[in-house]
Amino acid sequence: METVWLSGPEWLAVLRVGLGVWWLESWRHKDKRGWFERGTGIAWASGVASKHRWSAVTKGFDTVVKPRPKVIAYVVVYAELALGLGLVLGFLTPVALVGGLLLNLLYLVLMIHDWAEQGQNSMMALISLVALFGMSWQTWSLDGAWGLF
Predict the structure, then answer these.
(1) Where are the beta strands (DSSP E) in the chain?
(2) Of 24, 39, 56, 62, which residue is least crowded by CB atoms under 10 Å?
């Protein structure tokens, strides 16, 4: 493979780190006080789920999220932080890529009506797949330095 400026593995690492920065930005801009103290994030998602065109999404949300809004708020917010750190540092990278892919797919399905969110989540999911199958942890990562994976 011929590339410009960087090698193929280095470009995959750039893609991985960029995705990690995207997750860190998702975490950074969240109103954590609103999410944790007032439940704003889960309340918003509940409104979206209650009007969802697929009844399975509404039922799943009511079964999994509604009974434990505070726990899920912490899971979502800190999952985004963990994904961002894991991808930027290249630590447990395959786990972070699969976890991020699943979270993006959940967001994609929940927000099926929101075209802006569809674009963001589908692109993040695509980057996760490319970085996963391209084994982007081989370069510029703790996983690569420590010989993991």
Answers:
(1) none
(2) 56
Residues belonging to the chain: 149
pTM confidence score: 0.91
Q: Three-state SS string across 108-148, please? A: HHHCCCCHHHHHHHHHHHHHHHHHHHCCHHHCCCHHHHHCC
Q: What is the pLDDT of residues 109-125, one digit of tens each?
A: 998 877 777 889 999 99
| pLDDT tens digit sequence for 72-95 | 999 999 999 999 999 999 999 999
CA distances from 132 to 9, 98, 114 (A): 12, 8, 27
Question: Phi-psi region for residue 90, left (φ > 0), alpha (ψ -120 to 50) or beta?
Answer: left
CA dist 138 and 149 (Å) reads: 9
Q: Give the C-alpha distances (Å, rounded to integers) separating 20 from 36, 67, 82, 116, 117.
A: 23, 30, 9, 20, 18
Per-residue pLDDT tens for 95-110? 999 999 999 999 999 9
